[in-house]
Every structure is written in C-alpha cells, then in structure tokens.
Amino acid sequence: MSKRMLYVLLAAVFAIALTACGSSDEDDAAEAEEQETNQEENETEEDSEEKAEEPEQMEEEVENEDASSDEADAEQEAEEDADEEEQAQAESSNADFDALITAMEEETEGTATLLYENDEPQSHEMEGLTVTLDAYQLVELEDFHTNFSIPFNDETDGGVILAQYTVENDSDQDLHYMPSLDLDFVGATKFYTNYRELLPLDEQLSSMLNPDNEYLVESGDEVTGYYAYPFGSEDLEAILAEGNVILDVPTPTTEYNEYSSSIGSGTEFSLPLDGDSAEKNAETESQGFYQDALSAENMGDKEMIEQKDGIGESDELGDVTITLDGYQFVDFTPNAEEAARYEDPDNIVVATIRFEIDNQGDEEIGLSSLSSRLTVNDGSQYLLSEGMFHPYDNSSGIASGEEGELLQTFLLDKEMYEKIWKDKSMEIEIGPMRNMDAEDISKGHEVEFNLK
C-alpha cells in the first residue's frame, strides 16, 4: 500500500473516532440539560403547591382569628348585658320613681334594688272625690344607716313600697281628705303607713294634705304626691310570699275634723307584688267576682258556681229603698294563711249578695253595722252574714240623698249546698237600717227577697 493510501485510511479512522466522541458529548449535554429542566419543573411544581397551600393556611388562620374575635365579642356582650341587667335592677321605666329611689339611697346611705313595678292605675270615686293609686314600686333597700332602722323592725335591710297617689275633687264643694292610706297584708300584726324620713318632704302627699291646711281639696282641684311604706326583712319575705298587700282608702268629709260629715264609701285596693299575682288579680276582675273582703284582700281562690245579675227587685225601709241587684255562689279555697280559720277549708261555698241602697232619709247609713240572714232548705235552716268578710270599716257609709252598694257575704257547707240547698228555695232578710253610730233608724223593720 502506498503511503498516500495509508494516510487517507488513517484520516478516515480518526474522523470516525472524533465523530463518535462528539456524539457522546452531545448526548451527555442533552441529558444534563434535560435533568436540569426536570429539576426546575419539579421545583416549580413544589413552589406552586406551597403557594397553593399558603391561602388555605391563611384562611384557616383568619378563621381562627375570627372565632377568637367572636368569642371575645360574645364575652364582652355578656358582660354588657350583665351590667345593663344590674343597672335595670336599680332603675325602672318611671323616671319620677328613679329620682325618688336615688334620693332615698342618698338619704339612707343604702342600696336599692327594684323588685317589682306596676303602672296600672286603680281609682275609687266617693261622691265627687276620687282617689287614684297612679303607680307603685317595690324595692329592696339594703345596708342602710342605723338611724333609719326603727320602722324596719330595727333592721338595716328590708324593703320599701313607693306609691304615687292623686286626689281629685270634681264636686261642687270643698272637701277635706285625710290621706291615711295604710297598707295591710294577710298575717300582718300592724298597719303600715308612710315614713316621712325616706323621701323629700315636698314630694309627699302628707305634706300637701295636712292639719295646717285642714286636709283641704278645693272644688275642681287635684293633688298628687308620694308615700313610702317600709318593711323589715322578715315582713318583706312575708309580702313576697303572699304576693299582695291591701291598701285602705278612707272617705272624705265635708267638714274638717268632723268624721260624722264623711261622704261616700271607703274601699280597698289590692296591690300585686309580682307578675303571677298581677295576672291572677286581672283574671279575678275579668271574671267579675264581687269585691267582698275575700276578693279585695286576696284571701283565697274563687271559682264561680252560680251567678245572677240585674234582678232589680226593690223594697223600702222608711225613706231607704233597697234593691236586690244580684248574687254569686262560688267555690272558695282559702290560701295557706287563711286556711287555719276554717274547720274544713276544702268544703266551703261562699254566697255574696249585692244590693243597691238609695238613702233618702235624714241620716247617713253605716254599712259596717248592717247585717242579714240567709234562709235555706225551704225555710228550715238559716245562716247569718259574716261581717268579717264585708269590705267595710267604721267610716263606710251612704250619705243622705246618695246611693251606694251593699254586699252581704255568707259561708255555706259545700256538701250541704251541693246535695240539698242549691235546688231548694232561698230567701234573704236584711235590716234594720242603721246610722253611723249603729243605731236602728228603721224601727226594727226588715225586708225580704227571694233568691230562688
């Protein structure tokens, strides 16, 4: 072989070798580049996943923050509600009473808590003079100065009933009204009256109507003022348990300090001290029970058995016309305080008879001294009226030339009533008429009415 041919052959082998090496390097470079690309893609995917997770984490954190915020808001709202409730205990819906309570706290150095308030007025008209209990509140008064302990049974904790009254004279004459508006309740051992040291004197009814001005309420005039009735802690518990207190409303007089010149008939208001008692009183009034002492003083529960109104039968005792207006027979259940008065408290029927009295005589008729007799079982038995259940006191009367209501109340044996008496005739005898001194003014005469 010539040298020329040898060189050509070697050159060709060398070229082939270079080509092989070049291809390997390119492959390696391509592989490296591919690995790098894959790594970048993986990193990009990881970054994308991390970025996708970040909003979820942020959302969870926001939700947790919102929940914490809601809990904080709820706690704050609960605290605010508690503060408002505590404040509401001391304040009522009546700004005038709020001012009086604040003044009482400052005067006694005590702390007052509102227990009950009632803005439903109760009114009673007495021949032109009307007494209205506008509103009242019961507050608990605690930790007050010992200077005020005496009317609270020597205690420094108790309760106070604050009452607003209006006395209005719509008659054509001046009248005198001593505002001895005393409170009582079942089981009480005394009457409760206004304690002048608790309220500003110029706000009190007893400062507006007093001996200095002869308790004068001029024709066309009206007077509004307040009373404060204190109770010791035991008495407060008692009236809360009873649920009611009774307010005595006396009569006015035409002459100062002359009780014989009293006009109209006194009455009693029942003051509920909680929502249940108020609802019960409203139900009693809606059922139309006659307001004998059993109803007026909330001595127990009545359930109507038989009622008849508008009878309209009349008879005369001298110059006095007596009209039988109606009657009610009720199943009566005395409350726990009253039950001890009865031999069998589950066996009572009460009959209350209503009359209208037209007094055209010369003397005032005294209602508390009138009595009657109920004849039952076709005249073979009789019962006497129960004076203690009549809603009258010694000042209750019907003046000459006036008309008024008279209630007579009887206690009947329930078993006898249901088995025998209710289906047989009954008559009521009433009289004689008596004046304010309980003197007979109809010469012993009586009148009789048939009930059935």
Please specify the SSE layout and strand pairing.
Blueprint: H1 3-90, H2 95-108, E1 111-118, E2 122-126, E3 129-142, E4 158-169, E5 175-176, E6 183-184, H3 205-208, E7 216-217, E8 222-232, H4 233-242, E9 244-249, E10 267-272, H5 275-287, H6 293-296, E11 300-317, E12 320-334, E13 348-359, E14 365-366, E15 372-376, E16 381-384, E17 397-398, E18 402-413, H7 414-419, E19 427-430, E20 447-450
Signal peptide: 1-20
Region (Disordered): 24-94
Organism: Oceanobacillus aidingensis
What distinguishing features does this structure have?
452 residues, alpha+beta, 5-stranded antiparallel beta sheet, 4-stranded antiparallel beta sheet, 7 helices, 31% helix
Concise overview:
It contains seven helices and 20 strands. It has 452 residues and is α+β, with helices and mostly antiparallel strands. The termini are far apart.
How would you portray this structure in words?
There is one protein chain. This protein is an alpha+beta fold and 452 residues long. The protein has helices at residues 3-90, 95-108, 205-208, 233-242, 275-287, 293-296, 414-419; strands spanning 111-118, 122-126, 129-142, 158-169, 175-176, 183-184, 216-217, 222-232, 244-249, 267-272, 300-317, 320-334, 348-359, 365-366, 372-376, 381-384, 397-398, 402-413, 427-430, 447-450. The strands form 6 sheets. Strands 1, 2, 3, 4 and 8 form a 5-stranded antiparallel β-sheet that branches. It has a 4-stranded antiparallel β-sheet with strand order 11-12-13-18. A hairpin with a 4-residue loop joins β15 and β16. The protein is globular. The relative contact order is 0.08. Residues 1-38, 40-55 and 85-90 have low confidence and may be disordered.
